[in-house]
Amino acid sequence: MPREFDFLVYGASGFTGKRVVPQLLATAPKGPDGKPLTFAIAGRNEAKLIVNASSTTIPVLVADVSNEEDLKAVFGRARVVINCVGPFRYYGESVVKAAIAAGTDYVDITGETEFVEKMCFKYHDMAVEKGVRVVHCCGFDCIPAEMGVVFTKEQYKGTQVPSTIEMFVRIKNGPSGGGFHYTTYEAAVQSFQGVNELRALRKQVNRPSIPAIGPKLVFNQKPHWDPRIKAYLLPFIFADPSIVRLSQQILLQHPTSPHPTNRPVQFAAYLVIPKLRYLIMVVMYMTVFNFLMKFDVGRKILLKHPKFFTAGLFSRTGPTPQQTKDMRFETKMISRGYSAPPANKSTEPDVNITTVISGQDPGYGGTSIMVVACAITTLLERDSIPTGVITPAVAFKQTKLIGRLREMGIKFEVEGKVE
Predict the structure, then answer these.
(1) 406 — alpha (psi -120 to 50), left (phi > 0) or beta?
(2) What is the per-residue pLDDT across 6-27, written as a single tens digit (0 to 9) for each?
């Protein structure tokens, strides 16, 4: 049965959803063969959705996240669902389940590791059976990391093989400062409740260990200065390292085809802190944050006072339009590898490759670009994407996603040479 819409933005009245809609509006007229792409918006609050669509002719559909039958009926009218409703540990599962039941492909903006791995475990086989692509982490979590690893691996030519990739994430505020919305903060705080569940789930799933090529990559978990970056570093505590590992494990378990980007690498990720005083401040706040997260009452205090416990970085109002406009991100990938497969693990790498992925406001403007690019790629290159519940690197490694991201303002460069 023909579907009315190419895309359905679910959660279109939320902080990020409201930014995805104009990005789709800007992109929709540029469909293949001059034919515009079509979309509708959906959520549980019709009044808010109508306000969001008031200046356009976007169709508005209503479906509550708690009603899977309504979700299935609404999703059955579209080819790809773009899910912007978070925190996903509370609101995501019913949306994934309904999309699969409706036979509708799905992308989202989650950065919640426990949710992603749980969905992979529970619904992968169901999605394969239905011929559906469910792709998580299609925003700033974790497109720069996932597609950055793919892009970096692609720079190894012929007999060359990668061994390690280290990722360095730098967030740059403009003159007006920067910030993030409360929902992102809430998801981070609540994620602590899923730590034990995630450990148990990983033990149950028992995914394969990732083979190391060459000497073991040393991951420095302490605050330290790195002369290569000319800045201080902290471990990157967000979803990216876990999702990069999961992608490699999925490819080991379910090899799709021989491809250079299937080669496993050792991976480590760091947050870049430009100055010592900022490092001291971040460490102090993180120490208090990590202590309070261990207790129910502590999490309640954290959730009640987001601005206080993050030095104003997170708020219920989110960043101002000017802050969003001024913010930038830069993700640098430093990779070492070999001109030919090494004879043993003690052989030192002899190839060095550095790539840089960069763009605007990582939290919302950049995320909107990334998830729309992923949705368009899922629609137009569906046959190049494996079925199942998967990650971006697994889904998009043999598509034109990186090219689309470049066209939309996200740069992928080899250091010293613009691609």
Answers:
(1) alpha
(2) 999 999 988 888 899 999 988 8
